[in-house]
Amino acid sequence: GPAFLRAVDLQTGSWGAFPQLLFFAYQGAFAIITAALISGAVVERMRFGAYLLFITLWSLVVYAPVAHWVWGGGWLGRLGAMDFAGGTVVHINAGAAALIAARIVGSRKDYGRQAFLPHNVPYVVLGASLLWFGWFGFNGGSALSAGPVAVLAFVNTLLAPAATLLMWMLLELWRTGRPTVVGAATGAVVGLVAITPAAGFIAPLSAIALGALAAFPSYFMIQWRPRTALDDSLDVFAAHGLGGIVGALLTGVFAERAWHAQVDGVIRGDVRQVGIQAVAVVAVFGYSLLMTTVLLKAIAAVTGLRRTTNEEGVGMDVVQH
């Protein structure tokens, strides 16, 4: 019905007292960022045309159904799965796709023989800072009104990543004897991912606990991954996939009716929500893995996924961009 913005105007919709056009732009931003996350797993070797075709099809075949399952009246929403701002819809979904995309596209030509280090640490910090600032809109805006729930999501989006950042630095201090700036930036992003599904459902102190706990799986995955054949260039699975899984499950632990959740979680004596959250995690992860595999195999058969080794050596910026 509303294809090409037909009848999408400045009238308010059933979802809140704001224009339909604003809802379109806001939801469009979620779809865009979810597809963009996947690029981090395949940078420096995937053909640009193949990537554009992939994210177009992926947005239609994977993102749209999952968003409907959780937010559009679909089966996970009816089951009671809680996802305030996209822990399953965005991060688990993209993390699973990134995992299989890195495997299918293959590793960079010097992976395992040469260290791929961040070449500009100030830019890493700038990028992480912009992400954190934008995430206040990502999570706070998911309240769909400027009110108490938005305030809660906003504050939790400040506290949880701060806790993850601190825990990440402590883990680095324990493991290597010194914390790093890149590690702190990575920890902040992991914390932002983890609080996303819970931001409007849990107490601020619970957000601090959630953020601290979220550091562990992602940190150790990032340490372990370079020893494997998985060249997930920007650790999309470790940061977004695992961060989203931890956040989604802990939403079922820390949710409280007193903090605007639909149901109480484990800390309030109800263990059922964790099971519902686990169903959502498995369903979204499995669907994304399967459909991403199908799409990439189909695109590979038609147009190919990678540049040549020589072109990759010269650099994708020179050859493609």
Descriptive tags:
2 strands, mainly alpha, globular, two-stranded antiparallel sheet
N-to-C order of helices and strands: EEHHHHHHHHHHHH
The coarse overall form would be globular
How would you describe the oligomerization state of the chains in this entry?
Answer: single chain
Give the radius of gyration.
20 Å
* Main sheet makeup: 2 strands, antiparallel
**Percent of residues in helices:** 55-70%
Widest sheet: strand ordering: 1-2
Distance between the termini: 37 Å
How many strand segments? 2
Q: Could you say which structural class the secondary elements and strand pairing correspond to?
A: mainly alpha
Mean pLDDT: 94
Q: List low-pLDDT spans.
A: none
Structure description:
- There is one protein chain.
- The relative contact order is 0.15.
- This protein starts with 11 loop residues before the first strand and ends with a helix.
- The protein has helices at 20-39, 48-71, 75-79, 87-105, 121-140, 148-176, 181-195, 204-224, 236-254, 272-302, 309-314, 316-319; strands at residues 12-13, 16-19.
- It has twelve helices and two strands; from the N terminus they run ββαααααααααααα.
- The longest helix has 31 residues, at 272-302.
- It has 321 residues and is mainly alpha-helical.
- A hairpin with a 2-residue loop joins strand 1 (12-13) and strand 2.
